[in-house]
Structures are given as structure tokens and as C-alpha cells.
Design brief:
Layout (H helix, E strand, L loop, with lengths): L4 H4 L4 E7 L3 H13 L5 E9 L2 H13 L2
């Protein structure tokens, strides 16, 4: 990667949970980002799935961290 700043200035968050049917893909993407040296946060939550009610709770929290 020629310009790491291009990606490392972003706040990339991957939110997933133990009931998320795409959880394995979040872990896979996290591994790819790590391999490329791109900073990110893999938020692996307990008792969460892949649906609007979980995202509704996650979004305000994520926004509060930036």
C-alpha cells in the first residue's frame, strides 16, 4: 500500500455479535484489514445479532467514540 494515510485516518468499526449470521465475514474482513495494516475496531458483542434493534443501540455508541 503506497499511502497508508488514505485508510488509517478513517475510524473503521466492524460491529458483530454472537448471534450475527454474518459474524464470520466480520472476522474475515478484520483479518484482511489487519494484514494490510489498516486500523479498525472489531466490536464483537455478546447477545447481539444481525438486525435493526442491535444496530440502533450500536450506532449512538460508535458515534460517541469519534
Amino acid at each position: 500500500m503506497t499511502d497508508p494515510w488514505k485508510f488509517n485516518h478513517m475510524n473503521i468499526i466492524l460491529g458483530t455479535g454472537e448471534w450475527d449470521n454474518t459474524r464470520h465475514e466480520s472476522f474475515r474482513l478484520s483479518a484482511i484489514l489487519t494484514e494490510k495494516g489498516i486500523r479498525h475496531w472489531l466490536d464483537n458483542r455478546r447477545w447481539c445479532g444481525h438486525d435493526w434493534n442491535y444496530w440502533r443501540d450500536m450506532l449512538p455508541y460508535y458515534l460517541s467514540t469519534i
